[in-house]
Write a structure and sequence with these properties.
Elements (H helix, E strand, L loop, with lengths): L3 H32 L10 E5 L5 H7 L1 E5 L4 E5 L7 E7 L3 E2 L1 E9 L2 E8 L8 E7 L4 E8 L4 E9 L4
Antiparallel strand pairs: 1-4, 2-3, 2-10, 3-4, 4-5, 6-7, 7-8, 8-9, 9-10
Length: 160
């Protein structure tokens, strides 16, 4: 038969063990968020959006694989056939889910807007304009988590 004191000691040890286990699980959860583990269904990294009435030449000028030289990020913009939707893929280096992609024409400028929606990225977006003289996408990246805006550009990369 156990004494009342040893039962209290076992409960205290069990409680301590439970706190350690829960603390460890909490730390693992935070680490997973920080390294950007993909949630189920978010690894695809693509979203399709109507290209609208924009002329095919403007779409062709921005379609392709683009590299952001300052970090190695990749933005792939599909070449849609008539009646198809425009598609973007973003890699950092793993696929990051894209919520919205828009290619619009404003005067003579072709504008590309890509909103990201993945762990660590919700609300972050690129707002870019095609520079035909340099064959680049130039604009800014808004990093929502840091509430900061960065001037960025992408150069055309070789397809893999």
């Amino acid at each position: 038969m156990q004494s009342k004191g040893s039962t209290s000691g076992n409960r205290a040890r069990n409680r301590g063990l439970m706190i350690v286990v829960l603390g460890g699980l909490a730390i693992l959860g935070v680490v997973a968020l920080l390294i950007g583990c993909d949630a189920p269904g978010t690894s695809e990294g693509t979203e399709q959006v109507e290209s609208g009435t924009i002329e095919p030449e403007a779409l062709e000028s921005v379609a392709g694989r683009w590299l952001r030289p300052d970090g190695g990020y990749i933005l792939e913009l599909s070449r849609p056939s008539p009646g198809e939707k425009f598609k973007a893929t973003y890699l950092n280096p793993r696929p990051i889910r894209v919520a919205t992609t828009r290619v619009t024409r404003e005067g003579n400028a072709t504008r590309v807007f890509v909103e990201l929606l993945d762990v660590g990225y919700p609300g972050s977006y690129y707002d870019l304009v095609y520079d035909p003289a340099g064959d680049r996408l130039v604009g800014f990246y808004f990093q929502a988590k840091m509430n900061a805006t960065f001037d960025v550009f992408f150069v055309r990369a070789e397809a893999e």
